[in-house]
Amino acid sequence: MNYRGSYRHLLKNSKAAMVAAIEIYNKPSFSYRDECFVILLLNAWELILKAVLSKQKLSVFYPKKRKEPYRTLSWRDAITRAESYFPKELSPLPVRRNLDLLSTYRDNAVHFYNADEFGVLIYALAQTSVINYKDLLATFFKINLENEISWQLLPIGLKPPVDAIQYISKKRGEIGKGSPAVNQFLTELAAATAEISDAGLDTGRLLTVFSVSLQSTKKIDKADVIVGVQKVEVGQGPLVVTRTADPNITHPLRQKDVVASVRQVNGTAVTSHVFTAVAWKYDIKNQPRYCWRATGGVLTRYSNDTVTFIKQLSADAIKKACIDYRKHLHERSRSTSRKK
Question: What is the DSSP string of 168-234?
Answer without folding.
Answer: HHHGGGGTTTS-HHHHHHHHHHHHHHHHHHHTT--GGGT-EEE-TTS-EEEE--HHHHHTTSTT--T
